[in-house]
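Can you please make up a protein's amino acid sequence together with its fold in token form to help me picture the idea?
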Amino acid sequence: MSQPSRERVRPDDTRFWQAADTHGGVMAAVSDSVRLLSLQHAFRVSLSSKTRGELGGPFLKDYGSSVRMPHTWGDGDGWVINYLGHPSQGATSGWVWLQNEAGAERQTLGRSRRYWTSRGRALAWSAVYSTQFEIGPYSEASIGNVGLRPETTGWTDYVMTPVGGLAMIVAEDAIDQHLVRWLERHTNNEPLRAIYRSFMTPNRAMANVAGGRWPWHRTTRDLGERWPRKSATLSQGKGDDSIRNSP
């Protein structure tokens, strides 16, 4: 009896989307986080003369002197940086985790346990990311020696970054679920939809960029994008039909 041929079949779009949707995990989140850190440090060095001025000198000695336990709440930064900028960083790094946790992006804001456990893990990830950003080997302490003077360290960065970040993640979930989707149902203009998503959920957009995706990417609602990594391959009618087919 002849054996059935084992011909290799090329996966169709559905299988490719399923593989891409479950792609990620801890190592992918680490990789995306390093990319996000690199973007942040590039901005710091390019925009801050004070940071550039601290790049010289003995690296290990200055780094070791910059890592210290905070003794005050504030760190000398203004209200905007501490209570908007750092939470924004926490939200972006939290989204980096959510984009690499299988199924997390598909959870909608509500009372479900899956939603809040996924956002809780994003909170934990942003706390680790924040600590690394402050005093880790690839941090403000090592690049620019922030903390060399005691008055430049404070607990506000360690607390407000993950806690405020979680609040911003939930807020962006609400904006995307109730406002962005409503706006998208009233237009078939894909560039306009991309603008809505990018500017109304900016932390999620930045995490998309760090993950090698377009800023407006949504796992469940593609705009016809095509790229090799983490593709939003819900095309060919496999996206959110309630939006795609709306008038």
Remarks:
- DSSP finds ten helices and no strands in the chain.
- The radius of gyration is 21 Å.
- Residues 1-22, 230-247 have pLDDT under 50 and may be disordered.
